[in-house]
Design a protein that fits this description.
- Chain A is an all-alpha fold.
- Chain A has a single domain, classed as ABC transporter involved in vitamin B12 uptake, BtuC (Orthogonal Bundle), CATH 1.10.3470.10.
- Chain A has 15 helices and no strands.
- In chain A, helix 3 packs parallel to helix 9 and helix 4 runs parallel beside helix 7.
- Chain B is an alpha/beta fold.
- In chain B, helix 6 links the parallel strand 7 and strand 8.
- Chain B has one domain: P-loop containing nucleotide triphosphate hydrolases (Rossmann fold, 3-Layer(aba) Sandwich).
- Chain B starts with a strand and ends with a helix.
- The longest helix of chain B has 16 residues.
- In chain B, the strands form 2 sheets. Chain B has a 6-stranded mixed β-sheet, with helices on both faces.
- In chain B, helix 4 packs antiparallel against helix 5.
- Classes of the chains: A mainly alpha, B alpha/beta.
- Chains A and B meet through helix 10 and helix 11 of A and helix 2 and strand 6 of B.
Chain lengths: ~325, ~250
């Protein structure tokens, strides 16, 4: 364990904080940096305060939270499945959660119960993750695992298309598109508060699994022999990843590739330990989406680019690069 | 003092019976070599001794308590296990892999002083000083084998179950490891190891258990040697073949 092993995650945390603050200071509405900082603390022009505190800040925090949840989910799933390509998007967990959220939106369940959308997204994510594990995700080769995920993704995608096909009017359709491609535009603190408990619970579960995930570096048999409770680790990692992915999708829609790229960047900071990579992966995943959303807001397009589209444009090449590089270790 | 008592152990996998009513007792100070052909059930027996093999019938008792009923951490503080399949899934330093052997004593991230001392002793015993900081995947096969053994030794448990601890090792390191295991039993430990080299097993073990198709074919002091009958029936070669091959 290198002496600087705590310094690097600390600098990742600082970078993340800096990004969120930068996102509240920069934007199409030209507010001077000094005024924006003052507005952040509720001082100055009322319009500035509203723009900074009620529009920019919740949006930046939503992007960060969605990315952090995906990064931590990816780290937990990778540790559990011992597969550097595992991530909620690749494995179809995100699409399942999006399906859950879309069903809630389509049937207007949110009007009946405010927690309906996150709950349905999380339930769908949980079901998909449990199904993956039941299909032997812990034992089959990385390639087969990805194929199972592709199948699950395709099925959830088809079900989403079915719901969209049946959409009664273009307004519902455009709402559904937002869930499918992912966006944090117009998010409020209420939206954040709705998913925060689930993200918190998921992160707690994933961190409780961290020691067991470290032991799983040795494979299931040796991990059990050194005293890891494999059953408990499995349950905590799966439910943690599903809670975080479901909450992230409920907040921002389905956003791919953050969950695979963030843990990959985090692992060197954690000395290769999958358990210790969870928090850095959360910070890096959050930073990636906060930065991506900031760039989207500054792009001079009439129609704003969806966050999920931007993430995929950057993340998909990253995924290919990791897949090509890790073959050696992943068997 | 530690004692393992195996009573009429039966392990089935699908229709196949892997272990068929195996019984034997082992106690502190013994260095038991488990030998037999490929597929004789050696690995399954060792996993069962380590409490990691669900069995259809019979019992494995550790100090009179069924080993399967122990909590993972309690079991790991009493039995260390080196599986035959030595997996390593992430790029970690050799030292941090060895440190995982102290898992049952606390967090793998913050080792206490006794844990660090145990890791140091295991690293020194397996001649790995020079490789501590190296990424494990960059080590040679033999170095990795020693690293995994060091992981099991670092637990410093009364009982060590090792599946082919000398596989992939050159003769010098194989001898050093077997000497190490013998010292552990001389200090009051119990070591049960599957070994493929019968000569070395006879030289270092105090007792040999010969498995044949899931049953114990012979069980006795190692110095008594294996009779030509056992060799020909269990290994499918005549004692003359073995001598001529030398």
């Amino acid at each position: 364990m290198a002496p600087d092993s705590r310094l690097l995650p600390a600098s990742a945390a600082l970078a993340a904080l800096g990004l969120v603050i930068a996102a509240t200071l920069i934007g199409p509405a030209n507010i001077p940096a000094g005024d924006a900082i003052a507005a952040l603390f509720g001082v100055g022009d009322d319009r500035h305060v509203i723009i900074v505190r009620d529009i920019r800040l919740p949006r930046a925090l939503a992007a960060f939270a969605a990315g952090a949840a995906l990064g931590a989910s990816g780290a937990a799933l990778q540790g559990l499945l011992r597969n550097p390509l595992a991530d909620p998007g690749v494995l179809g967990v995100s699409s399942a959660a999006a399906l859950g959220a879309i069903v809630a939106v389509y049937f207007n369940l949110a009007a009946a119960a405010v927690f309906a959308t996150p709950l349905l997204a999380i339930a769908a994510a949980l079901g998909a993750t449990a199904l993956l594990y039941a299909l032997g995700a812990g034992r089959v080769s990385p390639t087969r695992l990805i194929l199972i995920g592709v199948g699950m993704s395709a099925f959830a995608g088809a079900a989403v298309a079915l719901v969209m096909n049946l959409a009664p009017n273009p307004f519902v359709l455009s709402d559904l598109v937002n869930w499918l491609f992912g966006t944090v535009a117009n998010r409020s603190f209420n939206d954040l508060a709705l998913v925060a408990p689930f993200m918190g619970a998921g992160l707690t579960a994933a961190l409780l699994a961290a020691n067991g995930l470290s032991a799983l570096t040795l494979g299931e048999e040796a991990a059990a022999s050194i005293g890891a409770d494999i059953g408990a680790t499995r349950l905590l990692a799966i439910s943690g990843a599903a809670l975080m992915t479901g909450a992230s999708v409920a907040l921002a829609g389905a956003i791919g590739f953050v969950g695979v790229v963030a843990p990959h960047l985090a692992r060197p900071l954690a000395g290769g330990d999958p358990g210790r990579a969870i928090l850095p992966a959360a910070l890096i995943g959050g930073s990636i989406l906060a930065a991506a959303d900031l760039i989207i807001r500054l792009l001079p397009f009439d129609q704003e680019l969806k966050l999920g589209v931007a993430a995929a444009l950057i993340g998909a090449p990253g995924f290919v690069w990791i897949a090509a590089r890790t073959q050696r270790i992943a068997r | 003092m530690t004692a393992i008592d195996v009573r009429s152990l039966v392990v089935r996998r699908g229709d196949a019976t892997i272990l068929d009513s195996v019984s034997f007792a082992a106690g502190a100070g013994e260095f038991i070599g488990v030998i037999g052909r490929n597929g004789a059930g050696k690995s399954t027996l060792l996993r069962a001794l380590a409490g990691l093999e669900p069995h259809a019938a019979g019992d494995v008792l550790l100090d009179a308590v069924p080993v399967a009923s122990l909590k993972p951490r309690d079991r790991a503080r009493r039995i260390a296990f080196l599986p035959q399949m030595r997996e390593l899934h992430w790029a970690a330093t050799a030292e941090s892999v060895v440190a995982l052997g102290r898992f049952a004593w606390g967090s793998p991230y913050r080792l206490g002083a006794p844990d660090r001392a145990a890791v140091d002793r295991a690293v020194a015993a397996t001649d790995l000083e020079a490789f501590r900081g190296r990424i494990a995947q960059t080590l040679s096969g033999g170095e990795q084998a020693r690293m995994h053994l060091a992981r099991a030794l670092a637990a410093e448990t009364p009982t060590l179950i090792a599946d082919e601890p000398t596989a992939a090792l050159d003769l010098r390191h194989a001898l050093a490891i077997l000497r190490l295991l013998r010292e552990k039993t001389e200090a009051g430990g119990l070591v049960v190891a599957a070994l493929h080299d019968i000569d070395l097993a006879q030289r270092f073990c105090s007792r040999l258990v010969v498995l044949d198709r899931g049953r114990i074919a012979a069980d006795g002091p190692a110095h008594a040697g294996l009779t030509p009958d056992v060799i020909s029936s269990v290994f499918g070669v005549s004692a003359d073949d073995v001598r001529r091959a030398d």
